[in-house]
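Final report, Chapter 2: Outcomes

The project's central promise was a pipeline that accepts a single protein chain and returns its three-dimensional structure in a standardized token representation, suitable for archiving and comparison. That pipeline is now operational. To close this chapter, we reproduce one record exactly as it appears in the project archive, with the input sequence first and the structure output second.
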Amino acid sequence: MSRFLLTGCKTLPNIFLSQSSRRIWTRSIPQPASFGFRSILPRYHYALRPSTMELKDVVKVLEDLAPLSLAEPWDNVGLLVEPSEPRPIKTILLTNDLTEAVMEEARAEECDLIISYHPPLFRPIKRLVQKDWKQRLAIRALEAGIAVFSPHTSWDSVSGGVNDWLVRGLGSGQVSVLNQAYVDMPYSHIVEFQCRNDTLDVLLAELNASGGVLVQDPLRCDATKTQVSLYCSGSVLPSVVDRITQYIVAVDKSLRILKAEKPPRTGHGQGRLSVLDEPVTVATAVKKMKSHLGLRHVRLALGLGCTQESFVHTVAACAGSGASVLNGVRADLYVTGEMSHHEVLDAVATGTSVILSDHSNSERGYLSVFRENLVGKVPADVVVMVSKADKDPLEVV
């Protein structure tokens, strides 16, 4: 019986759906007065709506948040460990580094996916054995059915990613990208020419059939000829030009070959330069970065002619090991995780002060920011947690 008819009690369905909260609410069935209840108070409890998310769906969300095409060419990003038996993703663990301690934590929490900022598998491997600690972790992940995904430099490059988070530690400012990211294009050259109208269709059909060519919409010049522009890769350029010269008008004047420039991906790229809205002293910059990174200590190298009371107007930041990105950048202050002794000397000789936090300390705080972004993209019953076992291997003693 789905409802009771009771004196003094309204009849309501036992179950109704609250779509906004993604929950199914169930009403306690009121008992007849003879059961000893002096009054009937509706009581509710809820159960989360059954909701699953497959690994491939989570991976798509991760790649939407930070496209893997933004990663550096040398990097090893994306899905690194994929269990053979797929299962719904219910618990996700975020970590900066996948270590033995983090793996123990993941297994204890019954995680289905580990998102490790640094790729635990980086160099090519020829075997999976227990004596190598990274290979051992991969084996343990597979045995436990845990997938492993690494974003690394795609998080560094993406707008709103690690480097934007890092440079915001010194306050608001006009932020620009140090090493601009560009749109990946399969075409390296642009070929422009004029073709007779009576042979245009034949030529275009031959070009399209040859492959590796993208023809733009032709522009008719007059009753006898049409302007054509196409993109092609360097490997097919000679054959394309050879084919075109058989049809075009006035080869010496109408044929142009240009190098295709990749369009920039605005806001994306490695490193950030911020012109601070409110300049701060070096001493204040140190305090701000310690607070932002959650550290008691950082290392400071004062630029030539600078003191801790010198003002910082511009700051260049690069998470991790940032010397290759920061080298040569004109700024009052560099903020990064680590630089070599000689790289620091080079910087201070130009009058630039340097704050070093140790490698992963310049990255780890972003995990909490990314967690909030990810929580909004997955079902409500998917648990997203930041590792408690993850930490920088170095400490000040």
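Archive annotation: Residues 1-50 have pLDDT under 50 and may be disordered.
This record, like all others produced under the grant, will remain available to the consortium after the project formally closes.
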